[in-house]
TrEMBL record:
InterPro entries: PQQ_rpt_dom, Quinoprotein_ADH-like_sf. It comes from marine metagenome. Residues 4-41 form the Pyrrolo-quinoline quinone repeat domain. This is Pyrrolo-quinoline quinone repeat domain-containing protein.
Length: 73
């Protein structure tokens, strides 16, 4: 979302299972993959548009491209 939150939801209840604040807006869609029987979710963040000129009152996060990878239980 615009606040850089990346969330996972409980499929049965719809409750937020966990949340991570990313260093910048997500740069695409999450990817799910499995390695050695463990499932992971990956999302790229950064490399987006600089909104400083349009919304100078909004604090800008540190820039940089980051690949976040989360191991699922």
């Amino acid at each position: 979302d615009d606040a850089r939150r990346f969330r996972a939801f409980n499929a049965e209840t719809g409750d937020i299972a966990w949340e991570q604040i990313l260093n910048s807006s997500a740069g695409g869609f999450p990817v799910s993959y499995m390695h050695d029987g463990v499932q992971y979710i990956a999302i790229a963040a950064g490399g987006g548009v600089n909104y400083r000129s349009v919304t100078p009152e909004v604090q800008q996060p540190p820039r940089g491209n980051t690949l976040f990878v989360f191991r699922l239980p």
